[in-house]
Amino acid sequence: MEKRITTPLTLEKVKDLKAGDSVLISGVIYTARDAAHKRLCELAAEGKELPFDVKDSVIYFVGPAPAKGDQVIGSAGPTTSYRMDAYSPTMIALGQRGMIGKGKRSPEVVAAMKAHGAVYFGAIGGAGAYLSRCIKKVEIVAYEDLGAEAVRRLEVEDLPAFVIIDCEGNNLYENGRKEYLESVK
Amino acid sequence: MREINALDVTAAVKRLCMEANSYLPGDVKARICAACENEPWDLARNILGIIKENFEIAEEKYVPACQDTGVACVFLEIGQDVHINGDLNAAIHEGVRQGYDEGCLRKSVVRDPLDRVNTRDNTPAMIYYDIVPGDKLKITVAPKGFGSENMSQIKMLKPSDGIQGVKDFILKVVEEAGPNPCPPIVVGVGIGGTFDKAAYLAKKALMRSTDVRNADPLYADLENEMLEKINALGIGPQGVGGKTTALAVNIEQMATHIAGLPVAVNINCHVTRHQSLEL
Q1: How many CA atoms lie within 13 A of A40 on its CB side?
Q2: CA distance B109 to B62
Q3: Are A100 and A94 in contact (CB under 8 A)?
Q4: Is residue B128 within a helix (H) or strand (E), and if so which, with residue range?
Q5: A84–chain B nearest CA distance, Å
Q6: pLDDT per residue over A97-146, tens digit each?
Q7: Dihedral, CA atoms, B186, B272, A136, A141, nearest 10 degrees?
Q8: Would you call A183 an interface residue with chain B, using a CB distance cutoff of 8 Å?
Q9: How distant is the Cα of A69 from the closest Cα of chain B, in angstroms?
Q10: Among A15, B47, B91, B149, which residue's Cβ finds the most Cβ atoms within 10 Å?
Q11: Contact criterion met (CB below 8 Å) for B234 and A176
Q12: Where are the domains of chain B?
């Protein structure tokens, strides 16, 4: 079943999402990769204010290609999430509710997700041209010097993703594979 | 001796950088389409459908299929009767600079692995030279994304590990990579040579059409067997479970030392890109 969700992503909405759900995400989300996460966590450690409201936010791990012609943004698929594992627990503790990326996460991230109520979505890696069409508006909000890795505020419409890890720690990578293998036994 | 102007090399590299990022090779597209038809797992089939739509959009709009437009791996087969007028290395880097700028491709290269300052023009390219007979210059540009590059591994096996050791290692690398390298993947394997030659062979294997099997029947059989074994792992497209984990396994082999059995596995995502032309 496909679920439509709109940001801000409240705890109530997070609790309704189960590993394996297909979702269409709409609303405002923010981009950040390793370099931006490092700076955000340094700000947090110094007790300073972050450049966007982290509470109930969704962060998309993406470094988009430059816009071409009349494009709003260039190709914009997810990057591999494990590089953010060192930072995500801090961000989740600050109130972040959703992450969009691809690939495995560490036990520390999953523990933070369960403790605070957060969800990890997978978008389709390598489908950057397709996914860029779901992005309707882009604005750089911080770290312009990082180029593709700057923090951007995106307005998205029906961005397709699936719930990889839900707030109870259920994991589609483990369950989906197991169920598939059982189906072909 | 045939003369080739370095400016022509720049123009060729520029064009190939742009084309390779938007146009997937026909064999890769055909394998993705076939996987769409043959994938029994619902979510996996939906994902493959979007992957197919994605390469169609990239082609139609002439935009990069993936935002990770990679580091530009440039392979040159230089005929020994060719003379280049001008600085060949500089000409290649300039072609990459122009192609990544004009093509609106992402600049993903840092000048130093530790200080990590972006060069902002995607240079330098990673250049691989091969001297061959003749008076032609063949240039291949393969943008290599690092989601899959990071999942690659090399191992110096013992001769006693034999073919079983090679099989076990390939499966281990794919298993450990799991969903990270954007499956369905193409697996390049280099066997033999030295530590560095094995890695080079693995990358070179990814330049071969997925429709062409190794000329040696032993290795062709190994390619087929490993593809079957990888797809029996059930990792599936994007790791959500399913039949389609790999599109192909390409193996290249060469002579090695009596004491060694180097094996390198270079993983590529479903956006397996390479374009060639001959000057």
Answers
A1: 31
A2: 22
A3: no
A4: strand B126-132
A5: 13
A6: 999 999 999 999 999 999 999 999 999 999 999 999 999 999 999 999 99
A7: 90
A8: yes
A9: 9
A10: B47
A11: no
A12: 2-21+65-144, 147-273
As a whole number, mean pLDDT of residues A76-92 equals 97
Residue B247 tokens, joined = 């599109």
What is the spatial distance between Cα B169 and Cα B175, in angstroms, rounded to a whole number? 10
- The whole-angstrom separation of Cα B268 and Cα A81 is 17
Of A153, A141, A179, the closest CA to residue A49 belongs to A141
Amino acid identity at B166: V
Contacts of B271 in chain A (CB under 8 A): 126
Whether A130 and chain B come into contact, CB under 8 Å, resolves to: yes
pLDDT tops 90 at residue B198? yes
Question: Per the CB < 8 Å rule, is A173 touching B178?
Answer: yes
In whole angstroms, give the CA distance from residue A23 to residue A98. 12
One-letter identity of residue B209: S
How many CA atoms does the CB half-sphere of B209 hold within 13 Å?
Answer: 10
pLDDT, one tens digit per residue, over B103-150 is: 999 999 999 999 999 999 999 999 999 999 999 999 999 999 999 999
Tell me the two tokens of residue B178: 């799991």
Q: Amino acid identity, residue A154?
A: L
**How far is A78 from chain B, CA to nearest CA, in Å?**
9
At a CB cut-off of 8 Å and minimum separation 6, what does B23 contact? B58, B59, B275
Q: In which element (H, E) is residue B47 found?
A: helix B42-61
pLDDT tier at B155 (50, 70, 90 boundaries)? very high
Place of tokens 């394996």: A20
Fold entry, domain A2-183: fumarase (3.20.130)
Residue B94 near residue B10 (C-beta atoms within 8 A): yes
Angle among Cα B269, B273, B278 to the nearest 5 degrees reads 155
CB contact under 8 A, A126 and B46: no
Look up tokens 């490993």; give the residue: B226
- For residue B191, give both structure tokens: 């066997």
Could you state, in order of their start, the residue ranges of all structural domains in chain A? 2-183
Contact criterion met (CB < 8 Å) for A71 and B63: yes
Chain B, nearest residue to A102 by Cα: B180
Flag if A180 and B239 touch (Cβ within 8 Å): no
Query: Smallest CA–CA separation between B79 and chain A, in Å?
Result: 35
